[in-house]
Amino acid sequence: MKNPKMVANAEKQRRFRERQKEQGKQQVRGYVSPQGMESYKELSAKTGWSDSELLSNALRITYAAYKCGQIKLLNEWLKDNDK
């Protein structure tokens, strides 16, 4: 028989994921390089953004650079600044 606390926690997590989906949010995750983690910590400290907000805004900024034809410039800056 399953532990009641584990079942309750799994149910709580399921409800949380359902609420996020209802709000139109989608979970996206991956592994982060050491340089990326450094940038994450710095941005988190300076902005006070949550993990979710950081990821969402990073994607939006990258997309904006792409739409403005600046993605090559962004990549070059990242390489030159070792970030």
UniProtKB/TrEMBL annotation:
Domain of life: Bacteria
Organism: Paraglaciecola mesophila
Residue numbers spanned by region Disordered: 1-30
Protein name per the record: Phage protein
